[in-house]
Known about the structure:
CATH class: Alpha Beta
Strand order of the largest sheet: 1-2-3-4-5
Number of helices: 6
Distance between the termini: 55 Å
Order of helices and strands: HHEHHEEEHEH
Helix content: 25-40%
Amino acid sequence: MDGWPQRRFARRDAATRELCxxxxxxPLLRSATSADITAVLELWxxxxxxxxxxxxxxxxxEALLRTAADAxxxxxxxxxxGGLTIVGTVIAAWDGWRGHLYRLAVDPAHRRAxxxxxxxxxxxxxxxxxxxRRINAIVGHDDAPAVAxxxxxxxxxxxxxxxxxxxx
Length: 168
């Protein structure tokens, strides 16, 4: 019966086929809990963008989960391969005006299998359900694999807008 959902729905519309693929795909995508914080930090230690300069602390993730319990999405493998128990993340922040995606990270051993795109689509669905109709993604301009993923996901570079930051 391996692959039966795909065969059964082969004649259905594209949305049904995509949903079918998501339901049968692994790793499992879900909202993070405080029990995941250590595993998320372990993933970020090996898979975060070199452009991510904000230090990672358990207290920061605890605060995120307290203020936006569903904002941190994680990918959990069916059976952890003796290593990471979380193999992908994305933060989907909603400010009441726009959606913001950042900290998209996928374990190097799980890359090039569609997991990053699945995380983006799940985050988009979450933000859309909250009212977002426009989403910004924070992406390093010179990170070619990351740029390629975001372009594949349908995002466009906006050369008219720059980002200014200040550490507090």
